[in-house]
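Hi R.,

Here's the chain you asked about this morning:
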Amino acid sequence: MKKPSNYLRDFFIALGISLIFAASYSTLAIKKYQAHQTRGDLTAYAQGLWNTLHGNFMASTFNYSVHNFWDGHFREIKPSNSNIFGIHFNPIILLLLPFYAIYPSPLTLLVLQALVLAGSSIAIFIVARSILQNKFIAFIIQFSYLIHLSLVSASLSEFHAYPLSVLFSSLLILFSRQKNNWPYYITLTLLLFVQENAAIPALFFGLYLILSKDSRRRGLLTSFLGIAYLLLSTKLIIPLFSPTGSYLFETAYGSPLGNSYLEMIKNTLINPQLFITTILSSTNLVYLGKLVLPVLPFALFAPGALLAGVLTLTPNLISSASILKTLAMHYEAVSVPYLYYALILGVLFIIKHIKTNKVMLAGTISAVIMVATVIQYQLITSTRFSPSCVWSCRFYSVLDAEKDQVIASIPQGASVSTQDYFSGHFANRAGLYLFPVYYDRADYVVVSTGDESWPLDQEDHHRYLAKLKDSQNHEVTLETDHFIVFKKDR
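And the predicted structure, written out as tokens:
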């Protein structure tokens, strides 16, 4: 009876650790939001949930206005043709709807994301505790997991649906180890519902199961469902919701493998060398080196699991876009559960093959894990969403107080065209657009009069400002030291 009691106690300690990190993640994310440092992805999901609660299913006019601007052509934007499932298919978001109904604010999404990211560490702890039979190492692995750059960056880079996959990926690993079929396939379904490209980690984890002979039937079914869901969601479901009738992100921001998933798969099968050379470019190797550093060297002793973790980032690795390889995005978080599974299996290999004092060995392993984790922070300090912002990023200031004054001046039901950093604070409304999109149609225009001109350059920004000031259809309702509010005459 002692063993179950010890396991239960350790579980609650792991739970407590995860809650401490969830509180830390959410506190920092909220501070960034209050300091107007969040951007459009948070706005898109918040507006989608708000519109769903108000009769326009998952509509985000802001999200489509962003694409209007970057695509360089005008398209009529209204809630009825702005379903965000036409950009990414994220049905898992609907599970967050009751929470948003209780507290309809983008802050709800930031807190829920923090809970999911930190909560996934509990499954990793259980896997480590069960496999290694050493709670001290298991706690060290959980701690390293929680401070991994990718999880911290995901929690601080506003809200995205894709990082929610870390919870279902970690549970997928756990249920696979426990050989619990129903929980496994329910979790697999939830993982796929996170986003269309969550099929990629499902595909490669399935291949890992096949090659490791752990459960070939389960692995085969997992890989098949991953491929089938990727093609179904990108070829049928997303185009069905999209006003353009197409999937915008199939090209992976440009790739030497082709311009569609089918073309990429075909070219990979015909020319495997092209796939290998694309994956193993020098840029990718540096990118992956920084990412996997905290699980080295132990993960090298579990090459199959390590490779599966690396290949979860295939969309990044085959892309020609350098921004996807800076560790400044949220995509890397999806790989972390699989990388730490490789770490756990590698540590098991060491424990089995090195016969020495168990306490000394556990201490050495734990020290190596923590040193490797700290070195990752040493190597990565300048990216946009680096955890260095925990100490150095700007929090609420006098300028932010001025921004809040501007935000408070806009009526709740009015449509708004504004800059990205304001957008999250205007998310709970049917009509919201990225300035300059709909600058001449929205009820209100809220813009900077100073240096904050993104996405426009300074010249174009001031050109639009001049148009608004000269317009017979607009009046200035508020002008502060750094911002101006225009109201459109009806």
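Residues 382-388 have pLDDT under 50 and may be disordered.

Let me know if you need anything else.
M.
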